[in-house]
Amino acid sequence: MVSIEVCVGSSCHLKGAHDVIEAFNSEIKHHGLGKEVFLTGAFCLGKCLNGVTISIDGELFLGVTPETVPEIFQNRVLDVLGV
User: Which of 7, 33, 34, 70 is found 20 to 30 A from 79 (Cα to Cα)?
Assistant: First the structure.
């Protein structure tokens, strides 16, 4: 199981957290990993100046955009799951 938290605090919300969540949802569905990947929102991950901030199994990624999600998903989720 891989856990992805997307900050949805006010700063990250304004920087496009909803679009990042949608991009992760799309990747999860595309790869059929609904049971292997847990996607949730987090109120604040403490990096407000660098949002959108996400955490994957405790590792922070800063400045995430919908365009960077596929690469992060490939390198940090699919590789970890061996897919």
Answer: 7
Four-point Cα dihedral 52, 74, 24, 57, nearest 10: -70
CA 40 to chain centre: 9
Return the domain boundaries, the chain: 2-78
The C-alpha atoms of residue 43 and residue 1 are separated, in whole angstroms, by 22
State in words which class domain 2-78 has.
alpha beta
What's the predicted TM-score (pTM) here? 0.94
What pLDDT band is residue 76 in, cutting at 50, 70 and 90?
very high
